[in-house]
Amino acid sequence: MRLLAISDLHLAAAHNREALQELLRHPDDWLIVAGDVAERLEVTDWALGLLAQRFARVVWVPGNHDLWTVGQDGPDAARGVERYDRLLTIAHSHGVVTPEDPFPEWPGALPDGVKRLVIAPLFLLYDYSFRPNDVALSDVVAWADEAHNVCGDEIHLAPDPFSTRPDWCRARLDETRHRLARELPDDAHTVLVNHWPLRRDLIRIPRVPRFTPWCGTTATEDWHRRYRAHAVVSGHLHTRRTDLVDGTRFEEVSLGYPRQWGHSRGVAGYLRTII
């Protein structure tokens, strides 16, 4: 029994959809899906249904592409929190664990020194605090635009009913802190799962160096220590890697767009083993 992880499936790409369909059954394994499944709700519905049939349990968190408003009418026209709620309904229809559900405890073999392990799916967004200190919040989009690094969220990711994405981020941070304090057992370690990285120092994206403001929040800098993380799983950057900070493994588990992964390996070749 293993805990596996992947993110950024980007199933708008036909090749990625075909590759996902070829993924074999893992009847004993759990799968973490760390966001950016698809922009269209019907594609997300198809993908989570497929994965729920092929894994013993699926744990999902939303990414920014999942939250994009891409339709003029119908379900894909939903904005902000309403869009997130529609994603939750889809996930729950397939028995998929979301950031709004009780944190599941890992039932398999435990790492050395760990007595209990809880998987905590998070939805935290970003607040532009991963910008340089000399760039004002009001100037961050113009600063990124100088290098053509502005995220598509500025067009597609609505924060409704919040006024701004940082406002939504603050609300998510407050709610999540309360839940973690209230629901995590005192003797448990965690696997924290969030689409966006929890630490700025782990962002290495030289091709788009001014994209960092859309990559997380400095408010989570110490969450791996505060919540006794055995591992932290994220995506978003499309820079598959493993880092070690304070004894905690940080796993960036993106698949990415078709040009960013080796098709001969299939999706199975990019499933990261967490436990």
Provide a brief overview of the structure:
The protein has helices at residues 14-21, 41-54, 80-93, 140-145, 153-156, 165-183, 223-226; strands spanning 3-6, 26-33, 55-60, 116-121, 188-193, 229-234, 241-245, 248-252, 272-273. With 275 residues, the protein is α/β, with parallel strands linked by helices.
Can you characterise this structure?
It contains 7 helices and 9 strands, in the order βαβαβαβαααβαββββ. The protein is α/β, with parallel strands linked by helices and 275 residues long. The protein has a single domain, classed as Purple Acid Phosphatase, chain A, domain 2 (4-Layer Sandwich), CATH 3.60.21.10. It has a 5-stranded mixed sheet with strand order 4-5-6-8-7. Helix 2 packs parallel to helix 3. The longest helix has 19 residues, at 165-183. It is globular, with a radius of gyration of 18 Å. The model has no long low-confidence stretch (mean pLDDT 97).
